[in-house]
Give the backbone structure.
Amino acid sequence: MIPSVLDAPAPGWTADADVVVIGSGIAGLVAALRCRPHGRVLLVTKALLDAGSTRWAQGGIASALDPDDTPGEHLADTLTAGVGLCDEAAVRVLVTEGPDAVRGLIALGAAFDRAADGEISLTREGGHHRRRIAHAGGDATGAEISRALLAELKDSGVEVIEHALVLDLLKDAAGRAAGVTLHVMGEGQPNGVGAVRARAVVLATGGLGQVFSATTNPEVSTGDGVALALRAGAAVADLEFVQFHPTPLWLGEGARGQQPLISEAVRGEGAHLVDRSGERFMVGRHELAELAPRDVVTKGITNRMRETGEPCMLLDGRHFGAAMWEKRFPTILAVCRHHGIDPVTEPIPVLPAAHYSSGGVRTDLYGRTSVPGLYACGEVACTGVHGANRLASNSLLEGLVFAGRIAIALTDDLAAADFAGTTEPPGLATSPDALQTGGLVDPGARGEVQRIMTSHVGVLRGAEGLDTAARELAALPHGGAEPGVEAWEATNLHTVASAIVAAARLREETRGSHWRQDFPERSDAGWHGHLVTRLAGNVLTTAYEPLEGDDQ
Ligand code: SIN
């Protein structure tokens, strides 16, 4: 049973805003800044402002900035990577608005790397037929974008609460989003469980990689936004498409937690994937070899490991030389050396790890979810641009473009909405649902959720393992845990894991990052559509929705 509301004490404090934005990666920061004309904006974030995934992004941000490139070519590469499940209208928005959005970041002060002629230096990554990835600080793109946006936030009038774990959505009598409950810990701020009343709620909570034992995601990526949205009754789509990055640094058998990323840009600049014998095993598997879309490379690595029995594969960039490593990939060089590997003189051991959720809270082209007044952007959202597999470096762009569109939507939506129901102070204490939850998951179950997901729902999936995962997740103890951050996070992880398993069991085909050993082919006849998950009455249901125009 999945709880429809988290057990939490009655709010001890309340605050008011016109727009509350949850999350402070690129999507949350852009949403907060762009929503400022709509009134009082409150940005709440789970840890420190720069602790989310954005600041870890290495490769860069994709857009057709090169005069020889076009949005149409970017569109084609994105649709190919998404294996038939992208929403073409959403991708068109992404690629046509993308170049100006990136220029907007540059105007804000984001310092992208430039070539000798002063033009933005562009690199390639998996699935891109052209150089179109802008980067900063060599391989510290996310950190630079985050720095520039945070500088802009400083005097913007946006109010900030850090160390705030969002709990549940508040709704008015008409079922419209009316704010959130959250738990805050930190000096100089309201503390404990509180309620923020707002006319619009923007989820920008990032990813869910911590559902797995090994992930490139930071500690905070526990799927809180997807879990909240499910509890609020919102539609969530495409959760089976968890993307496994092909080349995180291998830290040895059984490594857990956040794994250091070795950017695809390293391959974009010409590094080769080899096995221990030195064979370039991606050559012949795909026309782009090491620069095939990410799912293809991850499958290539996994297959080669099974063929050879080796525990990892190797990424060889020795031919770059020391000067290039130092200039182009200073972060990766330092991280590898910290772990005792010198990429200048030896190949880097790599192993795929959970990286990105291509699915999430379903939105329209303006970030609207199925719950009026609730919006989503960034990784937590499923805007339709990624389909079954996100194209590399489209994620920062998606956050940037679609967060801005929420501010546009609010102009009409706030004027049209009837806020009569929000005048009563909301709070969990007034909601009868709060008393009948499925119960909190014990904090100790967090490791179990990760073990189950890693053992049975990883890169390669099959009915037997997925059935085991469903059974083991359902058997984890519910109900006895004391309310608190650890139990709330464990409950969110459990909810999201259960939803991923439900979708992965249902989709009996191989497509994009969803790889079924028992259904190894793509099946457009059976599965050319989305899996949409909802939570009602503490029960998750996942339904197949064929794409419009398909007659099934
Ligand atoms: C990378 O730098 O390889 C990650 C880029 C991405 O996830 O888009």
Remarks:
- The pocket of succinic acid is lined by residues 58-59, 261, 263-265, 356, 392-393, 395 (CB under 6 Å).
